[in-house]
């Protein structure tokens, strides 16, 4: 169980850092950057608190449904953005490798 939790935490950390790099590229406003981390940490903190206090009898309550909805509303757009960023990075890396290969041919 702890191994799975560490893997999931690692994926979320990668997701957050990757999205933050995109935000950092888009804006120089430090308030937006700080706001991003405050909101992210608050949502993760609320979710962690709710998960740690979750009872099986609460499965159908509105509170559990709101927490699941909040988490999905918060994470799904980030996953969507990361997919586009990864595609862009793969394309740029491929272009770089092709350019590097062409340079090597010219130097040979």
Structure write-up:
- With 108 residues, the chain is mainly alpha-helical.
- Helix content is 87%, strand content 0%.
- The chain has 3 helices and no strands.
- The protein has helices at residues 2-26, 30-52, 62-107.
- Helix 2 crosses helix 3 (62-107).
- It is elongated, with a radius of gyration of 20 Å.
What's the arrangement of secondary structure elements?
Elements: H1 2-26, H2 30-52, H3 62-107
Name a few traits of the molecule.
mainly alpha; 3 helices; 108 residues; 0% strand; single chain
Q: How many angstroms does the end-to-end distance come to?
A: 54 Å
Arithmetic mean of pLDDT: 85
Integer-rounded radius of gyration = 20 Å
Summing up helix and strand content along with how strands pair, one would put the structural category as: mainly alpha
Unreliable spans are none
The helicity comes to over 70%
| Order of SSEs | HHH
Number of helices: 3
């Amino acid at each position: 169980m702890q191994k799975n939790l560490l893997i999931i935490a690692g994926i979320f950390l990668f997701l957050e850092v990757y999205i933050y790099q995109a935000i950092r590229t888009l804006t120089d406003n430090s308030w937006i950057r700080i706001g991003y981390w405050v909101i992210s940490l608050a949502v993760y903190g609320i979710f962690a608190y709710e998960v740690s206090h979750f009872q099986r009898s609460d499965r159908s309550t509105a509170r559990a449904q709101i927490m699941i909805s909040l988490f999905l509303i918060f994470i799904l757009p980030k996953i969507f953005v990361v997919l586009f960023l990864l595609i862009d990075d793969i394309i740029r890396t491929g272009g770089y490798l092709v350019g590097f290969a062409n340079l090597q041919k010219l130097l040979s």
